[in-house]
C-alpha cells in the first residue's frame, strides 16, 4: 500500500523526467546533491534518530528497537522487509524490485556497534552531537538554529556514525532523491543489514543457508569500513584472513634461581625467542618452509592498481617515527597482499620492580597470522607445526605431563584459537568489477583500486555461499574513530555516499 502511494506520487511529480530515459552519471550525482542540499536538516535528523538507539548486539531489546526504526524507514520507500534470526541478534533483509531490471545488487551494512564506555566520550555516545569540526577543537552546533546548508566539514559524533549506520540512512534518502528527479534504478536492490557484525556475525552463515533464495545477486557490495587516508573514492577487492596460535614453551617445573641454575636450566623465554626468529626474518618474511607456495600472485591489473595508489608511507613514517619499515622496500599496499605472522603479545615473568632473578617454568607468546588468497588455514597449521618440530620441539596441545617434559629436550604447547579464516580477493578483471570501476571512474576519475586490504572482515561466510563477486565500497572518513570513543562521520562523506549510491544504482544495470 505504501509502495503504491509512493509510486503514484512519483508518477505525478516526475512525469516529465520519465521522458529522459537515461541520465548520465554526472546528472545523477548532481541531482542527488541538489536534492540533499535542500533537505540536509531532515536527513541529519533521520540519522540522529537512528544513532540515538543503543546497538550493542548483546542486548536484543535494543536491537529490536533498531530493527523497528530501520524497517519503517525501508518500508516507507517501498521495500519489502523481513527480520531474520538464527538464534542471536536480528538481521534485516530488504528487497526493492525494479520493473524490467535483470540484475541485482546485494548491499551489505550493519547496524550494531561496538560496546561503549560513555565516560570516555566527550559527548554521550547515544546523544548524537553535531560539531563544527573534529575534536578536540570542534564546537557543538545547534541544529535547530541552522538555516540553509551545513558546513560539510561538520561532524556528527555518536556510536555507529561511521561504522556502520550511515549507509542505511544514505540509501533511503538517495532513493528519495532519485524518485523526486524521476530517475529509475537500473537494478533490483537487496539489502542485508547485519545486527551482529561487531561480534563476528556468528549466525550469518545459518541465515544464508536457511534463506538461500534471498541472496541471489549479481554483485555483493560490502558497505563498511573507512576510506583511504587521501579521501579519494576507493573500491577494495579483498581482505586478508586471520588466525591465532598461542605457543607456550617450558623450562623446569618450578622457578629456579638464575644465579644458581643459569647456564644449566633451559629457559622458556629464550626457547620462544629462538623459535620466533626461526619462523620470521627481520624484514617480516616468513621462513616456514612452503608458507608462500599457494599465495596467489598479483595480476597485472592488481599490480598496476597498487602502483597508481597515492603513496602515504613517508607521512606514516614521519607520524609514527618509523625509520625503516619491514618489507625490504616493498610498498605497504603490496605487503598486505602477502601473508604475515606477528607476535601480538608475550607473557613471561616480570620486568622493572616486578623483575625477579629466576628462570621461569613457562613463557607464552601469542601469534596472529594474516592469510591471503589460496592459503588454506588448515595447511598453514600443518606447515607451522612441521617447522616447530624441525626446530627440535615436541608439540603438545594440552598441558604437558612431567613424563613428556622429562622425555623431550624441548616442549611447546600449541593452542590454536579457532580454525582461522582464508583471505579473499575478487578479480578486478571480472565483468561486474570492470563495470563498477567504469561507473565509479566516470564520477570520480581518481578512484583508488585496492587489491586487498590488510585487515579482516567476515566475508568468508558470504564467499563460501554466494556466487556474486564481493567488492567493498568504503565511504566513511578514515578518521571516524570506529570502535573507539568519539566515533564520528564527516558530513561531506555522508553526502558523497548518497551521490555514489545514486550513481551505482542508476547506472549499474544499464
Ligand atoms: Zn563495521
Outline the structure in words:
The two termini are 29 Å apart. The protein has helices at residues 2-19, 25-38, 40-51, 60-76, 166-180, 204-210, 268-279, 300-308, 313-320, 332-335, 377-390, 402-407, 431-443, 460-463, 491-507; strands spanning 80-84, 91-96, 104-110, 129-131, 155-157, 188-194, 219-222, 234-236, 238-239, 241-250, 256-257, 340-347, 358-359, 362-371, 393-396, 410-416, 424-425, 448-450, 470-472, 488-490. A 6-stranded mixed β-sheet has the order 1-2-6-3-7-19, covered by helices on one side. It has a 5-stranded mixed β-sheet with strand order 12-14-10-16-15. Strands 4-5-20 form a 3-stranded antiparallel β-sheet. The longest helix has 18 residues, at 2-19. The protein is built from 15 helices and 20 strands. The protein is 33% helix and 18% strand. The protein is of the alpha/beta class. Zinc ion binds at residues 110, 163-164, 197, 224.
Write a compact overview of the structure shown.
The chain has 510 residues and is an alpha/beta fold.
Q: What tags apply to this protein structure?
A:
33% helix, six-stranded mixed beta sheet, Alpha-Beta Plaits, alpha/beta, 20 strands, 15 helices, single chain
Give me the Rg, rounded.
26 Å
Quick one: overall form? Answer: elongated
Unreliable residue stretches? 1-20
Give the strand content: 15-25%
Question: What small ligands are held by the chains?
Answer: zinc ion
Which percent range fits the helix content?
25-40%
Structural class: alpha/beta
For the biggest β-sheet, the strand order reads: 1-2-6-3-7-19
What is the count of helical runs?
Answer: 15
Quantity of strands, as a count: 20
Number of domains: 2
The CATH topology of the largest domain turns out to be Aminopeptidase
CATH top level assignment of the largest domain: Alpha Beta
Q: Major β-sheet, in short?
A: 6 strands, mixed
Distance between the termini: 29 Å
Amino acid at each position: 500500500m505504501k509502495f503504491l502511494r509512493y509510486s503514484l506520487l512519483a508518477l505525478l511529480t516526475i512525469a516529465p523526467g520519465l521522458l529522459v530515459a537515461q541520465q548520465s552519471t554526472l546528472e545523477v550525482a548532481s541531482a542527488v546533491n541538489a536534492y540533499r542540499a535542500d533537505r540536509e536538516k531532515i536527513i541529519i535528523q533521520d540519522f540522529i534518530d537512528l544513532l540515538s538507539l543503543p546497538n550493542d548486539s548483546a542486548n536484543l531489546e535494543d536491537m529490536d528497537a533498531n530493527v523497528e526504526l530501520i524497517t519503517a524507514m525501508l518500508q516507507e520507500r517501498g521495500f519489502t522487509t523481513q527480520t531474520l534470526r538464527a538464534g542471536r541478534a536480528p538481521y534485516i533483509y530488504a528487497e526493492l524490485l525494479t520493473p524490467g531490471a535483470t540484475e541485482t545488487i546485494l548491499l551489505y551494512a550493519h547496524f550494531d556497534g561496538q560496546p561503549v564506555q560513555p565516560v570516555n566520550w566527550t559527548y554521550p555516545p547515544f546523544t548524537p552531537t553535531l560539531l563544527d569540526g573534529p575534536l578536540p577543537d570542534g564546537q557543538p552546533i545547534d541544529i535547530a538554529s541552522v538555516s540553509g546548508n551545513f558546513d560539510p566539514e561538520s561532524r556528527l559524533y555518536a556510536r555507529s556514525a561511521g561504522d556502520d549506520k550511515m549507509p542505511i540512512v544514505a540509501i533511503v534518502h538517495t532513493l528519495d532523491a532519485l524518485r523526486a528527479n524521476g530517475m529509475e534504478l537500473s537494478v533490483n536492490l537487496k539489502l542485508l543489514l547485519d545486527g551482529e557484525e561487531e561480534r563476528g556475525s556468528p549466525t550469518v552463515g545459518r541465515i544464508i543457508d536457511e534463506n538461500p533464495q534471498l541472496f541471489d545477486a549479481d554483485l555483493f557490495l560490502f558497505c563498511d569500513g573507512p576510506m583511504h587516508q587521501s579521501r579519494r573514492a576507493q573500491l577494495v577487492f579483498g581482505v586478508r584472513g586471520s588466525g591465532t596460535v598461542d605457543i607456550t614453551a617450558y623450562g623446569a617445573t618450578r622457578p629456579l634461581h638464575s644465579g644458581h641454575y643459569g647456564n644449566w636450566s633451559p629457559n622458556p623465554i629464550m626457547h620462544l625467542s629462538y623459535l620466533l626468529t626461526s619462523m620470521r626474518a627481520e624484514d617480516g618474511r616468513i621462513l616456514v618452509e612452503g608458507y608462500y607456495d599457494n599465495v596467489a600472485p598479483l595480476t597485472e591489473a592488481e599490480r598496476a592498481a597498487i602502483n597508481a595508489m597515492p603513496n602515504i608511507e613517508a607521512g606514516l613514517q614521519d607520524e609514527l617515527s618509523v625509520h625503516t619499515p619491514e618489507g625490504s622496500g616493498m610498498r605497504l599496499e603490496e605487503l598486505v597482499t602477502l601473508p604475515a605472522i606477528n607476535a601480538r603479545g608475550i607473557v613471561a615473568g616480570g620486568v622493572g620492580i616486578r623483575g625477579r632473578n629466576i628462570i621461569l617454568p613457562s613463557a607464552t607468546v601469542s601469534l596472529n597470522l594474516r592469510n591471503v588468497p589460496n592459503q588454506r588455514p588448515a595447511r598453514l597449521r600443518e606447515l607451522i607445526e612441521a617447522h616447530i618440530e624441525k626446530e627440535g620441539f615436541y608439540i603438545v596441545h594440552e598441558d604437558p605431563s612431567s613424563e613428556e617434559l622429562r622425555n623431550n629436550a624441548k616442549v611447546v604447547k600449541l593452542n590454536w584459537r579457532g580454525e582461522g579464516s582464508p583471505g579473499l580477493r575478487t578479480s578486478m578483471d571480472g565483468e561486474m568489477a570492470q563495470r563498477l570501476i567504469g561507473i565509479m571512474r566516470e564520477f570520480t576519475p581518481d578512484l583508488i583500486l585496492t587489491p586487498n586490504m590488510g585487515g579482516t572482515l567476515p566475508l568468508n561466510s558470504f564467499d563460501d555461499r554466494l556466487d556474486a563477486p564481493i567488492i567493498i565500497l568504503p565511504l566513511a572518513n578514515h578518521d571516524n574513530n570506529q570502535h573507539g570513543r568519539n566515533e564520528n562521520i564527516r558530513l561531506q562523506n555522508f553526502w558523497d555516499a548518497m551521490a555514489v549510491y545514486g550513481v551505482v544504482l542508476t547506472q549499474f544495470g544499464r
